[in-house]
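Input record (one chain):
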Amino acid sequence: MFRSSTPQSDIVLFEMIDQQSDADGQAYIAALDALAERSDPAILIFRVAGFINQDHDIRKQAAAWFKRNRDRLNVFAKGLIRIDEGHHHGDDEHDHAGGHEDAEDSNFVRMLPFPVKRVATLDAAFALARDWPASGS
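The corresponding structure, as predicted from the sequence alone:
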């Protein structure tokens, strides 16, 4: 399941929980496009849990979206908070339990023009977002 919401005017929540259908993948891309329409930057919270079986084409589209918008990311986002709730991709190569960071994630984080923080719970993410430093560090 994928869903996005705006729990506060300066917080955007993306949730990827368990199996991702084609409709979920398209909703994710649409949510990224909607994010790019923002004129005031928000803290992005990515909550990821369970068996994430996202279509390869959707991953490619999302990567292309981030590449295409790289120079504008800080216009609509001031930081990213990631919550990994023991998600996996159904193979031994992409186990993220315990906050494991793989090379793809490292490359992704390095290309972002704003800080990325990791927390264990949604409550911790909201607390961190509320107290996000004005400078973004």
